[in-house]
Amino acid sequence: MHDKSFTSAVCYNKPDFKTQFFSLNMQIIKKKTHVVEFKKMAQKMFGNMVKAVVDTDKKIMAVNGELHADEEALLLENNSKQENLWGINIYPGAKGDDWIEFDSMINIRPSMNNLSRGIDNMNIRKKIIKVVNQLVKK
Amino acid sequence: MNYQHQGLASGKWVNLSLPEQMANIGSEVERKIIWKNKKNTSYGQKAMERALELLSFTIADRKNRNRLKELTRLREVLIDYFFGQNQYSSSDRLWQKYFYAFTYFSRINIGNS
Asked: What distance, in Å, lies between the first and last C-alpha atoms of chain A?
């Protein structure tokens, strides 16, 4: 069962009912999870894509949120540090380098000299790819 | 309605400021541009569907009623560029610059604390 590697986000949600209800599927992935699970998540929400925020220090990622900002908040609530969080999109059905897209509004961080929606620092990109490859079984 | 962003459609979207809303729309437009330039029509189409869905939420948000002319024009010109004849002479660069301002504004104080 791939689902065993998920950590439920339910207990970290804000008390607002609507927020809570629709955040039920947002999860923190800490262990290797089969790409099939990502395909299911993609199909249920955006069709081809799963939004994710990676913590390059803790080597975990929050996934399946509607906004990167929601996933970012979930990780911050779980003691991640802002400077380690980066937004990506995972396309589980895409081939080659296209399956990870470095594009999120949360990546714009003037205080860290990252001025684009992408990730300008190649070392950080490599760290993210490493974390994703550790957490996603293909 | 069969929304892709069900939680946002249920009312959560209105909790975001207008710059945050525009920044999120811009993220999807940026993805549309990326996939268009990679000749991936299917992925590009999905990104644009998400962008237009978020823009429709923004237009419906009552706090933005004084910005409706901007928002409805935005919708028209976006559709003209990506699905029409580009009669307004938009460009990828124009759209990237337009939305970047909102994204930068939304994130300017992040990480400073």
From this structure: 15
